[in-house]
Design brief:
It is built from twelve helices and ten strands. By secondary structure, it is an alpha/beta fold. It has a single domain, classed as Alpha-Beta Barrel (TIM Barrel), CATH 3.20.20. Strand 8, helix 8 and strand 9 form a beta-alpha-beta unit. The radius of gyration is 18 Å and the shape is globular.
């Protein structure tokens, strides 16, 4: 059991027509749920840490929890920085033991994005760490990432090809219609598979990443609303679309909102049905099991990564 990079994992995923789940972690229960599901189903897994997670749980706690989970389950894990805002945070995560970092220069001009990403790549590669870049801009809200729908930009395949060549990045997050948060679409969901196909043609064998790819599981939304929540109009990416993307060039699919929804639905269920409960272990234990069940479903039916460890 060890912290590993995505290099060999993505190669196998690309050739095998499946994707690896990159699940956002924030606390002990989430880490336990994800790694237990991955271990039981023998699936490779990526645990990723956002800016919000670093502020909430603190890096030292998260590192210790990830190490404990590897020891407990006996599996290898990729530890990934999600949406690194600048060179300094990427460098800090490389120095602290992360095996993969994302530098998000998607808000910059193409030239500035290339320069920033190349700088991170040079430092990370010198320390045996892989780098994910981003080209194009997703709408929505996730922790410190906030982009209005009017500012979203689809990835240009020709620019994607140039970006990879100029930066030496190991994987690339693209914008084809997914978005952050629980409110991804106002109308019928649609992804630009033509863009994904063209990028795959221009960059054969190169791993592509989908951010904002939670399905916003309707059953969880309904249960949360039935138990006093208010998530009217929450809508995510249909799972059949994600499975199709995983069969193409997409090797990494990010999942965050579905974890939050699974936890919230379970906690609200316990507190509504058992109002006498005040032991956090009761409702957090139920939440852990719900997240584990959701992650197992994604591995088997969406990602296609079961048995690929």
């Amino acid at each position: 059991m060890a912290l590993i990079t995505t290099k060999e994992l993505f190669k196998k995923a690309y050739e095998g027509g499946y994707a690896i789940g990159a699940f956002n972690i924030n606390n002990m229960e989430i880490i336990q749920a994800i790694t237990e599901a991955a271990a039981e189903l023998r699936s490779p897994v990526i645990l990723q840490v956002s800016a919000g997670a670093r502020k909430y749980a603190k890096p030292a706690y998260l590192m210790a929890l990830v190490e404990a989970a590897m020891k407990e389950t006996g599996i290898d894990v990729v530890l990934h920085l999600d949406h690194g805002a600048d060179f300094e945070i990427c460098k800090a995560c490389v120095d602290n033991g992360f095996t993969s970092v994302m530098i998000d220069g998607s808000h910059l001009s193409f030239e500035d994005n290339v320069a920033l990403t190349k700088k991170v790549v040079e430092y990370a590669h010198a320390h045996g760490v892989v780098v994910e870049g981003e080209l194009g801009r997703l709408a929505g809200v996730e922790d410190d990432v906030k982009v209005a729908e009017s500012d979203a930009i689809f990835t240009d395949p020709a620019e994607a090809e140039r970006f990879v060549e100029l930066t030496g990045v190991d994987s690339l997050a693209i914008a084809i219609g997914t978005s952050h948060g629980a409110y991804k679409f106002k109308t019928q969901p649609k992804l630009r598979f033509d863009i994904l196909e063209e990028i795959g043609r221009r960059l054969p064998g190169f791993p592509i990443v989908l951010h904002g790819a939670s399905s916003v599981v309707p059953e969880y939304v309904d249960e949360i609303n039935a138990c006093g929540g208010k998530l009217d109009g929450a809508l995510g990416v249909p799972e059949d679309m994600l499975r199709k993307a995983a069969s193409m060039a997409v090797c990494k699919i990010n999942i965050d909102s579905d974890i939050r929804l699974a936890m919230t639905a379970a906690i609200r269920r316990v507190l509504k049905n058992q109002p006498e409960v005040f032991d956090p272990r009761t409702y957090l234990g139920e939440a852990r099991e719900e997240v584990k069940k959701m992650v197992a479903h994604k591995i088997k039916n969406v990602l296609g990564s079961e048995g690929k460890l």
